[in-house]
Design brief:
The protein has nine helices and 21 strands. By secondary structure, it is α/β, with parallel strands linked by helices. α8 packs antiparallel against α9.
């Protein structure tokens, strides 16, 4: 692994020589610390417990290049846009912010939406604490992300404010063998509300690495609905790491929808730090071919009277493989915790594989917690019922497969996004002669 580590270290040295003079001292110190950690640890291997089911050969065998220049405005992104979605849109191409393709007004009432790579000296002086504080990098991917820290989105929502439109972040990979490393921050003020849609897309057949991080801080009474939508090429690798900190009576709803990507790893940690905090985590992955999706979730109940609800569903076909490792930790002072976790999987092929490990770690004695996992095939009784009503076997299997994931799709509350995803999911799961809709 030495050669691949040296490859990124050399890129970092070249990038730092070009950009360090324009960055604040605290950010330069973060980057230096992170690259030192990456040099020491490198990328995770199968010997690391949290990565034992996910091989990174597709990452360590290729020398991806980190793009340092802003992209031109000539690229045609129409195929990636959801025309019916009325949003404040930020577009990043190969990890760099593209003003030409974005749709942002000069000012958003109650909100500040900024690209990290475009921040001025004055904006850095008022950067959210989540960006300026020392970074704890849990593995080589997050260390590499902090080390480059070239671009990403920084969103701050003021106290007692509800954004009037969803914020859509579109990360597009267009260049072969390019690494994008966006570093993102969301800061929600007291009793603020917002919807954020983060979409990762790429050209078909493109080999690229997308390694993103996101720090979410939600103040008292704040509410954030966050959608992570992954539809990259089946030749692409995506690693997403999100950490959310929840204050008193705040709510974080995270919906992770994975339909694309050859190798996808999602790391999600949510800490409920004060009484009354609540999080919903919903996940859907529909994969085929040799796709590999690994969802690692970690919910930490650190205060009493907090609640969490987690449901992940997967549909696996052909030789695809999925991993789900969900951990709920209830600390000693977190009495009256109510936490539920479930992972359900439908295997459409004898060659598909799922490794699932729901986990409870409880140190309090007055709690209500439950967890479970299921792995199975299409129910033969339900199949027989549909066929007895005159539906042929192919259509019946399509109907049952779509119905399996429908309860997750119904939780996508942004109508234009739901319709777009439903169309794409239907194309994967439903025979073209079967007509279905999700409402």
């Amino acid at each position: 692994m030495t050669d691949i580590i040296d490859h990124y270290v050399d890129q970092y040295i070249a990038d730092s020589a070009r950009t360090s003079a324009s960055l604040p001292d605290w950010l330069c110190a973060q980057k230096e610390s992170a690259i030192s950690q990456f040099k020491e640890s490198g990328f995770p291997t199968l010997k690391d417990e949290d990565w034992r089911y996910t091989s990174l050969k597709s990452v360590v065998s290729k020398f991806f290049e980190v793009k340092v220049d802003e992209t031109s405005g000539s690229a045609d992104l129409s195929e990636f846009l959801i025309s019916e979605l009325d949003s404040y849109r930020m577009v990043f191409i190969d990890g760099r912010f593209s003003q030409q393709h974005s749709n942002l007004p000069d000012a958003v009432t109650g909100g500040d939406i900024t690209a990290l790579g475009s921040m001025t000296t004055a904006e850095f002086e008022h950067a959210p604490q989540a960006l300026t504080q020392d970074q704890t990098t849990k593995h080589g991917f997050s260390a590499l992300n902090v080390a480059f820290s070239s671009d990403g989105y920084v969103i701050q929502v003021a106290d007692n404010t509800k954004l009037d439109k969803p914020v859509e972040i579109l990360f597009v990979s267009l260049s072969e063998n390019t690494a994008a490393l966006p570093r993102n921050v969301i800061q929600m003020g007291n009793y603020s509300q917002a919807e954020l849609i983060e979409r990762h897309v790429s050209k078909n057949g493109l080999s690229a690495l997308n390694n993103s991080t996101c720090q979410v801080d939600i103040a008292e009474g704040g509410k954030l609905d966050y959608y992570l939508v992954e539809t990259m090429s089946n030749s692409a690798t995506q690693v997403t790491s999100l950490n959310a900190e929840l204050a008193k009576d705040s709510t974080f709803s995270c919906r992770t929808l994975t339909l694309g990507g050859g190798l996808v790893r999602n790391n999600l940690t949510v800490s409920l730090n004060q009484p009354g905090a609540h999080c919903d985590m919903l996940g859907l992955y529909s994969i085929a071919g040799k796709q590999h999706v690994d969802n690692h979730t970690n919910v930490i109940h650190a205060a009493p009277h907090c609640t969490s609800n987690e449901l992940y569903k997967g549909v696996l076909d052909q030789r695809s493989r999925a991993v789900f490792h969900g951990r709920i930790k209830v600390e000693q002072d977190a009495q009256k915790t109510d936490a539920v976790q479930s992972n359900n999987n439908l295997l459409l092929s004898a060659n598909a594989e799922i490794d699932t490990k729901p986990q409870l770690e409880i140190y309090a004695d007055d709690v209500k917690c439950a967890h479970g996992a299921t792995v199975g095939q299409i129910d033969e009784t339900s199949l027989f019922y549909l066929r007895s009503r005159g539906i042929d076997e192919t259509d019946a299997r399509s109907l049952l497969t779509f119905a399996f994931v429908n309860d997750v799709m119904e939780q996508v509350e942004v109508e234009a996004l739901r319709e777009s995803l439903s169309t794409e999911l239907a194309a994967r799961l439903i025979d073209e002669n079967v007509s279905l809709s999700v409402s």
